[in-house]
């Protein structure tokens, strides 16, 4: 009994020292869990309040009959515990205060009143004989403490406005919360009022009537505000409420004001419909047809919760950040599922860096880990033996690991495992057996494993509680078209002299057939590609890819130009059209191909005058062919030249015609292309050339520009 | 009786406990103390500009600020009248009662616990911190004195503070800096080593590293003015203009393409050549500014003055067929307005395009009055689709070879064809300028006249003409509070990596306050009174002992001055993208020093242009240049806005999308990849290696030489040792792997210089590459 | 080594947050759980923690299949039989209601309605109408959440694309991916947290531009990294000729020796940060090739995405690569596929475009699903605006074209917490105006951020004296499409 007394009174001393320290310093730096203690302040404070009041009569009785040991000790212990609780209450208060959401001055007063109350009661505890002895003064002392207490609690009261004290952590934003909809709930209570409460009543309530409007109750709201009634029953469009809501966001009169939580589209419609149906606060939910827009709206609106509330709650506490930091490396990433969430996910990166002990090391956080992702890591069956330690594991991803499934049984310890990914592993039916014992298991992913579609049917039948996902299984009857072959050096159109062409196809086991004569290759026609194809000055390769189980590819049509004899200089004898001359005469010999469709680049375009250019080789060279690379785009009035004339000689003033070509004209629209025209000339040694390509002077009658001049576009000229 | 004795026994036991408690107390004390350091202190005398306005501006002006449309409860806190007024629903109460926080409604609202009363409303997530609330309280208590925003008060030359002469202030700058250091109890750093100083100042003035000759000359020169000599030499160097041009090009959003989707070619490079020229011939800032803003409005302007106005035509121009002409024309005028606001006034005018400025006293009307200056251009929003796109949309000027010979030799035109440059032109009665509701081109409201925000300095039409020329004069008016401050601050920022006002582009209320207001004003006035002499300003700053400090950071400075806002040491700043390239190319001796001319297309990874283009236009494919064009300085790199040069972009270069006054300095793995694998740099390392090897020096001398060239100082004993061992390791490797050595040495198109010792050359190339990547190499 | 890595990660993050987000947020992101003040940072730069979702996210990663050029809603997901009935008749003015037109059709005197030349059928439980052009997408109808009531403010490609990616038509704002990277950090520090993949279809193309994946005013750390089909999947990734991992390792070791020396002398923490960036780049050099190597794909995968998926630079290959990147923890993979700008020759172009994207898009969903990743990966498919219900140019029996239409268009989302098998919103029978549940671009952004566990009003960045948001000053989360 006396031990008891001294124990408690010692505790009090300890606590009061803390109380004083806390009183002096800013506590906000203390850990969350300590500060949580503050939430109990409102509980504790009521104890000393009542007890002090109790002490007064007790003391009175005690000194009336100073012999009664009973009264003495009742008084003594009441006083003892009053002190204890006063102290605890004070400490709780201090902790609570540090959350800082309180008016500072009021707080300070309250704080020190609280502290002094605790100290005073403590003093009285030691002076209790004196109190009982000294009738009046003693009573005074007690009364004064009562006064302090009352004052203190007054300020305290003014500080607290029924916030939700026992909510853990930070306060969430005021969110619309809807009652459960029963048939008897009225539309008003069920849907309108909650929205109003959340988004209007904060400024329009009985205390604070912005614009003289009070929306805290239907009755009050009906009265309307300064600017008049909120609604005209039945006609939302002439209702002030709707008008204000629908005003532009940046309009001063827009409601709710910008910066405040806005109404969602559906909430607006909700008001609208409700007013349309007469803004009746008695209108019951069940009175509405299911098809009724209002009903649907209510269901929709009332069913949207706030995000924070949807978060899954975990009952284990978070791991210390230092532990997490200690485990985090570029190869093992540990992340909380969300800010402030105790649950952790572990993910591994970089095959070459993975070692089994990287998982074992996570035992420090085994309680918090709910997701483990080992996909594509060289993790084997042994690794699973440690997996059991994650008691709260929910998601396990083993895709593409080297497990065979032998040890999947160990997962039985993961009582919360819901989802298991085994795609691309060697697991088979027997391996899956033990999984069926895990009652929490919902989904198992088995794509690209030994499991067949028959197996799946069986599993699904036998264990319907789990969804067994086999993923995509190609349809035997569905044949897909192969992609066409392409040259190994994709964007190389101009070849070095003697350079061959190599064709490629990404799919192994594909056969490539090709022709060089312009005829279409197919499964029978054309050579099978076996090695690099030797090229000439102009080489056109048509190729197709074929393979069993696939539809042959479209034909790929590739033209290659071999670099010809070096041209020293080139000059244009007719100016190109101003819009298409940016690249200058050099474009003709710069060995850069223009692209069909982009005439802004590398092309020279001629319309008003023919293409006519002079080329000088350095020294006379034996030439047998001249190659012009021209654009062809009937849609843009670009036609083949009606005639190509090649003159040459060794005296630049006396050139004679050594070759001509009259290309065939298109009979109908045809798509973009770059078409090479190879002109065979009288073979010989030449130095100076003059080449003219005559653009069509009258477009054919089938063309929409019939009668107009056509274009000639040149991008390159070669000499062989 | 026995009660008492019992108590004493109890009391005995207590001592142990008390001891424990004292310990605990101490612990928690330390805990709190530690935490306190991180929290700001509340000043003795609360100053409106420096302590209160930042809070009000940031948390309150959004709804109770200059913006009349958004003003709540028709209460404004940005003016005294507004703040001292009685509440309109309750005349008894006042927002602020000077000297009496508890009776000031404002304070009540700040500390209210009723979430519907609390200000700022919780939903705005602008809550004030405890400290901030306390500052407000104290300010009201101290009489709630309002002041005009500091940057709107014209600078006066402040008296230079006295400081201890032992600290050797070189010029008044140091007095200001030292005085502040003394105040916060920090010592300045000693001067940096001559070598370090030389690299720093040449990178800062010419953007090129010192040659070995320069290094040795400067090291030998013991004369007291040795450093000043070098500075003057550098300022006279023709590459100074290039260095200065880079930041001006960012700010003027210079580029070589039009910038929207089908990104056509444009020829604004002659304007860039002019900027270089203007800096080199040290045009006064007054002239520099006037010509660019209003060269065309000067009495019978010459072609050079016209060219300068290209500044206002560097904005993007669309070629997307089908856009609405007026929509884009408005965009262009907007861009000019915002750019001028940011570049010369450091005011975020753009914030008042759609509504009155939320923080600064700039109304929407003010905005469109500024807008009006740039709205008289006879231009179209869409000249033509990419097919018709021209390199210079009207209004423009043709520059012929003759023009260049006569008066604009600084333009480096390559061929005989004229070059077309976009310039400014006003057709006075072309259109009335309208205020645009919500900034929408299709919601014109009242007509507005050309004018400037009165809160900064009224536009006195009797004093200046009503056009851009007037605007230029207004900016240069001695009573204009911004122009001089903004420019000196920008130069300071360029040199110290941090402005005296950190937010170089925002001197408004949301901007940061100057760390050294007096110094800023002193420099501003000094600059203006020097006749806006830019070179003089730079000389003044770089010859200060503040600039000459070493970069060493003591732990004390790391704690007390982590972001160096007191300039207690010189910051180690990573070189900007262009300069990094320039340094390495120049150190390797392959830099082509040619100045100006059409932008060039050096090496660039395949597909950067090709994968983004629609396939239309002459910039659809990247055709890399050949020969010496590959080795031009970074600022000549062709900038196609829709696909800027990746190597530069990765190094934080500007996209030139809009006016940029500061670049961020980030640190990413991609930067490491560029420095290690960019063929341009491999080539530089190779050529340097081949040339050095052929000098037939001994190993140590060879390594010493490349180190000096790249790192710009002599290596220490230790470093030489490390270099040697690495060189030998690599040499051994390449001797084993001859073909790798050859492959490695193939880097780049620069002509191969044959060397006897292939392995040795490859090894040296490897060493060079390592030196290129040194942290020290990449900082100034 | 690992220890060193960890040290650096702290350095970087700390530096990054100190400079960018202020102490409070920074340490919150570091998750220093001890100090309350720091947790609920006193710095109001941003009231959310960086580097972590604010509340439990529905999706951890995003793959955005952007159909650049604007596919017609009327040939994809918005079935309007009336248009076929009224084929050739004039668009009633009552429907058009003065909607502004692009320069391409503004001076057209007639606006003849055109019906889709492709059949529609209902698919899946949801009975969603899907055009015959997309048989594979139709086969996964019940995984899709089709939004028929997207609408935008822009009527031209550049502003519309920019608006969709950055929340503003003009200016250099950070793109969605950059915001995600800034808000959520990266899962896998060996890869960029925001990757961009580009491809071009056979239809009429509209270019893309780096502004669409810019970091804007955020750290360039958050810039989208373009994966190219060339030999260098990431620019400058490959070691120079004649180099291997070992010699690169040697150089890095040498480098850190020298840098460490420098750190001794000047004590600038930046130096350590630098050293670590080099280490990271070294790791990236092995992380990336692990992903871009398509040679080991199973036959099933090839059939799932279509044989194109083996040809680098095709849409199919990008879809496959997107899955691999996402699977390896890349927060945001942004694809752009050109060729949907069907002003003319629509029937033909749409068919070619559909051929190129249908199988691969569906394949991606199937692939994610069968790996158990669909529930944590949000996939988005759609363009920058819709196309007019009337013909651009003369109506032609076999062919027609459609101009840009901002007032309604269709996109779909799948996985990552959106309701599967849902069709949201209604347009009028002309496919011109929205009659129910409009979704603006800002709403779209707000919703996507929400799915990633971020309150769009709180992910802010302070720049030039103003707090910027992806959703600017608007945006409502579309709760009805959230599972």
Structure description:
The complex is a heterotrimer of chains A (720), B (780) and C (483). Helix content of chain A is 31%, strand content 19%. Chain A is of the alpha/beta class. In chain A, helix 3 runs antiparallel to helix 4 (69-97), helix 4 (69-97) runs antiparallel to helix 5 (104-126) and helix 8 packs across helix 11. Chain A is elongated, with a radius of gyration of 45 Å. With 780 residues, chain B is mostly helical. Chain B is globular. In chain C, strands 1, 4, 5, 6, 7, 8, 11, 12 and 15 form a nine-stranded mixed sheet that branches. In chain C, strands 2-3 form a two-stranded antiparallel ribbon. At the B-C interface, helix 25, helix 26, helix 29, helix 30 and helix 31 of B face helix 7, helix 9 and helix 10 of C.
Class by helix and strand content of chain C?
Answer: alpha/beta
Chain pair with largest interface: B-C, 106 and 89 residues
The total beta strand count of chain B reads 4
Shape of chain B: globular
Shape designation of chain C:
globular
Question: What is the terminal separation of chain B in angstroms?
Answer: 83 Å
Round the mean pLDDT of chain B to the nearest integer and report it: 91
Average pLDDT confidence of chain C is 87
Number of helices in the DSSP assignment of chain C: 14
Which strand order spans the largest sheet of chain B, edge to edge or round the barrel? 1-2
Q: Which parts of chain B are unreliable, with pLDDT below 50 for 5 consecutive residues or more?
A: 28-39
Q: Give the low-pLDDT segments of chain C.
A: 1-47
User: Percent of residues of chain C in helical segments?
Assistant: 25-40%
Structural class based on helices, strands and sheet pairing of chain B: mainly alpha
Cα distance spanning the termini of chain C: 43 Å
Most strands sheet of chain C = 9 strands, mixed
Rg over CA atoms of chain B: 31 Å
Radius of gyration of chain C, whole Å:
24 Å
